[in-house]
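User: I'll paste a sequence; please echo it back and then give the predicted structure.

Assistant: Echoing your sequence first, then the prediction.
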Amino acid sequence: MKPEIKIEGINLLSYLKTALKHITEVTKKVEAQTKEKVWDHFVSEGKKLTRQPQNFCGIDKTSKADCQLRKKAYTTKLTPEELKLLNKYRISTDKIVCQEESFTVNPEYQTDKEILDKVKKKISEIKDLPDDFFIYHTEELYSATSPKSIQQIFNKIDNPEELKTLLKIVSTIAIKVEEVDVDDNFIQVIAKEIKKGK
């Protein structure tokens, strides 16, 4: 059995780490619920306007948040299912090159002096060069959302559920909340939410 030594700060650290664990879980849940409400606002407004609505400042009691609808980055690859759905509604997508067509020397031969010396003389005159000395890479493409995607969805789709489904494929919600004062009310709100989430 290990000896027990009194170390000041362990109790507080234990409380803080436990609180952080519960706060992280509650934050994920509340953020997901809040994002759904922001999605609903953008869908409702966009349906009325038949265009992408303005980003807005969300308010709740004394708190504020910058709420934005953003196009997903070009680095976000569309899945085959997402691409099929967008094609069904004729929503634009872009083809992004992730691997250009190229030849590279097989790493297996990069330190083979004998072969490299032959290459130096003249590639066209080389005899007995291994078939796989050069590796050929075909061009690889993937599909990503287009700058036109969001606008086309608001223009073409009337059904709110379909609109929301397609919008979630091509865009994302960002909620940037303003920090609040750490006071008695702050502690009470956090404690209440942790208890509810247990």
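The CA atoms of residues 39 and 95 lie 27 Å apart. Residues 10-94+147-197 form one domain.
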